[in-house]
Automatic annotation (TrEMBL):
<keyword id="KW-0472">Membrane</keyword>
<feature type="domain" description="G-protein coupled receptors family 1 profile">
    <location>
        <begin position="42"/>
        <end position="291"/>
    </location>
</feature>
<comment type="function">
    <text>Putative odorant or sperm cell receptor.</text>
</comment>
<keyword id="KW-0675">Receptor</keyword>
<feature type="transmembrane region" description="Helical">
    <location>
        <begin position="99"/>
        <end position="121"/>
    </location>
</feature>
<dbReference type="InterPro" id="IPR017452">
    <property type="entry name" value="GPCR_Rhodpsn_7TM"/>
</dbReference>
<feature type="transmembrane region" description="Helical">
    <location>
        <begin position="239"/>
        <end position="260"/>
    </location>
</feature>
<feature type="transmembrane region" description="Helical">
    <location>
        <begin position="141"/>
        <end position="165"/>
    </location>
</feature>
<dbReference type="InterPro" id="IPR000276">
    <property type="entry name" value="GPCR_Rhodpsn"/>
</dbReference>
<dbReference type="Pfam" id="PF13853">
    <property type="entry name" value="7tm_4"/>
</dbReference>
<comment type="similarity">
    <text>Belongs to the G-protein coupled receptor 1 family.</text>
</comment>
<keyword id="KW-0812">Transmembrane</keyword>
<dbReference type="GO" id="GO:0004984">
    <property type="term" value="F:olfactory receptor activity"/>
</dbReference>
<feature type="transmembrane region" description="Helical">
    <location>
        <begin position="61"/>
        <end position="79"/>
    </location>
</feature>
<keyword id="KW-0297">G-protein coupled receptor</keyword>
<feature type="transmembrane region" description="Helical">
    <location>
        <begin position="266"/>
        <end position="286"/>
    </location>
</feature>
<keyword id="KW-0325">Glycoprotein</keyword>
Amino acid sequence: MTDEGNQSAGITFVHLGFSEHPPLQAPLFLVFSAIYTVTVLGNLGMIVIIRVSPTLHTPMYFFLSNLSFLDFCYSSALTPKLLEILVVDTKTISYMGCMMQFFFGCSLVITEMFMLAVMAYDRLVAVCNPLLYTVAMSRKLCALLVAASYTWGGMCSLTITYSLLGLFFCGSNTINHFGCGYSAILSLACSDPYFSQMMCFIISTFNEACSLLIILSSYVFIVVTVVKMPSTGGCRKAFSTCASHLTAITIFHGTILLLFCLPTSISSWLLIKVATVFYTIVIPMLNPLIYSLRNNDVKEAARRLINTKLFSHAM
């Protein structure tokens, strides 16, 4: 890292957030607070239900509990700062605080990207080879796939964050965003950002292409297998196990591709903020709802857990 880059460590960034719309500050705080509360309760509740219910101790729900953990962590890495920005007059964040927020946010996004790909592979094995499902998706393999997703996400995020740490910030310290996103940080750099841009482009493109390739390939094989099934009941059951996962994938990757395609011009910053709000706050809330409302096993396990608690209190 250059001396110029080291001098940037003393900078304090100022978040604009949604300050250009003062009447919306209080309503947005209430809405985002409610969403964050539902996100925390939903994802932690999903983890608890899966952990205490023996019927949910399968590879599918092991991956789902990790997805819930990622959504909880990702939302918690960004939402509290957003809520603070909406209510305080001094909307600042330190240089290292900004870099740490970016690192954790980026790491969790990439990890979730591959966690969804792993879940697609899990559905492939479950549908195409149901008799050997528990053997093929052994506990060791599941742990290895999850560990690989976390490790790869951390490595990619560390590489991009390191490229940002090498930049020199000398001009405006105002971030036209509510979080330390890559484009928002890069727009403040005075030094040449070419290396950082290339690293981010290569890593982002590679990860998005690889994860989508795994997902699409898995579902092509799933569709071919389902079409060959002799009974309509088997087809319906196979598709029902994949419906929640497909919904989560569509929302997650659809928002990523939208943000990837949006220009970073001044006129598009509001749209970027809105899309980022959906991506960082709404999606982590939706995932536990999608998997609980569309999944009879989860609903039944939750019902049994609630009834057990009520019975124990009645005694």
